[in-house]
Amino acid sequence: LLAMAVSIFISAFSMMSMAVAVFEKKYFFSAVIKSFRLAKPDFFKILGLITVWTMVTAVGSYSLTSISGVLITAAEYFAPDNVASAISMFSIMGNYILSAVISLLLSPLSGIFSTMMYINQRMKHEALDIELNLNDIRKREYMARYYESLSNNSR
Fold this sequence. Notes:
Shape: elongated
Distance between the termini: 77 Å
Order of helices and strands: HHHHHH
Strand content: under 5%
């Protein structure tokens, strides 16, 4: 139980470390430290969101897997005995394959979730939206000066 509490605590603080490493081009320890710094002010909110996200993905995964189980059980019930045993054998393999496919479909969503948490925390605590707007204004001014110089040179 203590190990589970520690792992939940660590996951809440280190969830955004991959996004920090990618967007800010930081290495492992500095990315984890930055993730810790971003998560610290809103720790319980982030912990709650991680909990809800984990439950939603687990329920989605288990629901899709259980639907296939219900369909296979119905097929076994109505099939003759010799066919039912074959269906049972293939259903086990099919269930593993279905679980793998569902995991493959849901795993990118976890990365998107942690990236959105990172962007949200940066906007709240480091004014990322203002920084992005300033960069956009600088690019527009640079391009305007560039096109103006091109038009002056062509005359």
